[in-house]
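Good morning C.,

I know you're traveling, so I'll keep this short. The sequence:
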Amino acid sequence: MQIFIDTAPLIYLAEGAVERRERVALQLSQWVRDGALLSTSTLTLLEVLVLPKREGDRARERTYRALLMDLFSAPLVALDQAVADVAADLRATHGLRTPDAVQLASALVSGCTIFYTNDRRLKRYAILETVLVEPDTP
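The tokens, ready to paste straight into the viewer:
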């Protein structure tokens, strides 16, 4: 099983409220215990580094870089021609915003079957199984 981790769960893990941080840590630990491979993209790296760079917070930037290195054994999925082509298809057929299309395309191209996010809008597309950090309550 290969699971793509979107940007929001990583932000929650690094600096989110205690409840969210614990929820993400528990979910990721469970997947790792189950033998899942965790994956994310270079777009995730870009997204998590914007605020630390804007604020000149080198310590937070190092925290994110270390988190990505520690959590993911495989290289980050690059925005290459294959990812761009799938992302364009997703934008054309589903009307997704470019970042969402790139993240989903990165997950698909890298062979992921689960997409871990907190973006409820992405759950309406039957592209991948989507697991939310904060699941809908009945």
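Safe travels,
E.
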